[in-house]
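hey
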């Protein structure tokens, strides 16, 4: 079946649109997850929305399932590899990587799936830096669309990356092209500026799903402020997290700080600059507390590093607000203030400044080198902005990871009412025992968080089907939508557990 499909794609779109080589299939099948690589039958490379439509129609005709992906830089979430083996990878980003339009009056860019954070940032610089992007602290060559439709997020006021999309162009499982919002009317002048047009708002069903393939959209940009003034505070005690959350919440609820506020564990910080000290620990994981605290002091992270940034016309205009923020944290008697200049001079703090300034950074990715073996996976629950809830999650995660022999690295990215608890778990993927423990630890985390009422959100590909099996009503509803739109299972069956 797949051989005839590849032949048909090659005949219609040219041989450059297909790769069925052993090396190509091996490269696109690999990932860093404990569930193992997912073998693909081959890769196809569309160069336009019309090509995507053609490939989808041919896949349906030949009974092939496609796995659409943008740039494969979602490290620790699945990379290029599909949920299920045997699916054909549609690499959208290789040839569909154009910035189609930038509107500097209304502040948006129209992009394809291959456009990266680095690429759009460079375009903004070329145009005079009137606007800034909202990046992640992940790889700069990650896809903006790919991150947004998987409901990834950033750190600026435009942190909700899906929320900044408008006028999505989508190829449906039958090959038809659908435009969301006002774009449903051909030549609508408001396609990229008005989300709430006529009828139901359907954009959301194309995120974390397999109901269609996003091939183009506008992303709204933020005017770059004249001054960006960062601030940070370190806290020495592991037990300070609850109080930190209570200090942060009113600053966000009252819009004192425009950015999100990060509450970063010491290990999450120092692992970007250091590697595991095997010579001192004989491989003990997690790190002994005395060595962990020593590394926290060496790199100036404390047990917790709190950071954010202010935007305004000048440092002088922002100074009164900064003084108020300092007063809030320093009244605790536990916070050590770190100035903007000190943040610039420390590579760990500079990661935070970059993320608040719309500057793609590769520095945080160095965490993947903390321990050898190439394994990494993310656990991503939401955390209410309440001190005792954060402390419960902190104790639950630290205990489970320690019981299974893994380090506890977490960064809480705090908004007004909830934070994203970004847990990065590093493991040796070449060690079968460690892989088994990693699978067991992830299952234990999911079960424990379900019990205390904090379910996971964005999920690595090797856990998506199991995660959906916990939610029978959602599973039933999404199955009904899938059956209506894609009865042949042409697009990514199994993605986020939707079949």
């Amino acid at each position: 079946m797949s051989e005839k499909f590849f032949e048909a794609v090659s005949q219609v779109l040219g041989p450059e649109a297909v790769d069925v080589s052993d090396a190509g299939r091996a490269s696109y099948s690999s990932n860093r997850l404990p569930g193992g690589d997912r073998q693909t039958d081959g890769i196809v490379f569309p160069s336009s929305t019309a090509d995507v439509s053609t490939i989808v129609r041919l896949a349906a005709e030949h009974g092939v399932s496609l796995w659409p992906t943008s740039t494969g830089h979602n490290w620790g979430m699945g990379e290029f590899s599909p949920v299920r083996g045997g699916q054909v990878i549609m690499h959208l980003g290789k040839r569909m990587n154009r910035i189609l339009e930038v509107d500097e009056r209304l502040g948006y860019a129209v992009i394809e799936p291959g456009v990266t954070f680095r690429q759009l940032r460079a375009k903004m610089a070329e145009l005079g830096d009137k606007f800034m992007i909202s990046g992640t602290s992940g790889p700069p060559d990650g896809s903006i669309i790919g991150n947004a439709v998987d409901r990834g997020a950033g750190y600026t006021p435009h942190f909700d990356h899906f929320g900044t999309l408008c006028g999505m162009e989508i190829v449906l499982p039958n090959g038809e092209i659908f435009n969301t919002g006002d774009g449903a009317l051909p030549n609508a002048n408001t396609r990229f500026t008005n989300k709430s047009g006529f009828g139901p708002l359907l954009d959301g069903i194309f995120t974390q799903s397999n109901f269609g393939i996003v091939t183009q959209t506008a992303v709204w940009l933020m005017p770059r402020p004249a001054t960006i003034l960062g601030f940070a505070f370190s806290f020495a005690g592991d037990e300070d997290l609850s109080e930190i959350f209570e200090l942060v919440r009113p600053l966000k609820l009252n819009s004192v700080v425009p950015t999100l506020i990060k509450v970063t564990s010491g290990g999450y910080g120092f692992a970007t600059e250091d590697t595991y000290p095997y010579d001192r620990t004989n491989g003990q994981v997690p790190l002994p507390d005395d060595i962990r605290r020593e590394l926290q002091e060496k790199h100036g992270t404390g047990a917790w590093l709190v950071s954010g940034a202010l935007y305004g016309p000048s440092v002088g205009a922002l100074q009164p607000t900064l003084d108020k923020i300092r007063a809030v944290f320093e009244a605790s008697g536990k916070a050590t203030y770190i100035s903007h200049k000190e943040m610039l001079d420390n590579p760990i703090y500079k990661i935070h400044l970059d993320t608040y300034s719309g500057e793609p950074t590769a520095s945080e990715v160095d965490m993947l080198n903390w321990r050898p073996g190439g394994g990494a996976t993310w656990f991503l629950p939401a955390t209410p902005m309440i001190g005792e809830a954060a402390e419960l999650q902190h104790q639950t995660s630290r205990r489970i990871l320690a019981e299974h022999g893994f380090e506890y690295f977490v960064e809480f990215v705090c908004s007004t009412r909830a934070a994203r608890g970004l847990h990065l778990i590093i493991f040796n993927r070449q060690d079968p025992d460690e892989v088994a423990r990693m699978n067991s630890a992830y299952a234990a985390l999911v079960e424990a968080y379900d019990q205390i009422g904090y379910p996971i959100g964005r999920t690595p590909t090797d856990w998506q089907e199991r995660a959906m099996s916990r939610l029978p009503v959602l599973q039933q509803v999404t199955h009904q939508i899938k059956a209506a739109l894609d009865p042949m299972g042409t697009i990514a069956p199994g993605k986020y557990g939707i079949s």
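The chain has three domains: 2-94, 99-223, 227-458. DSSP finds 16 helices and 19 strands in the chain.
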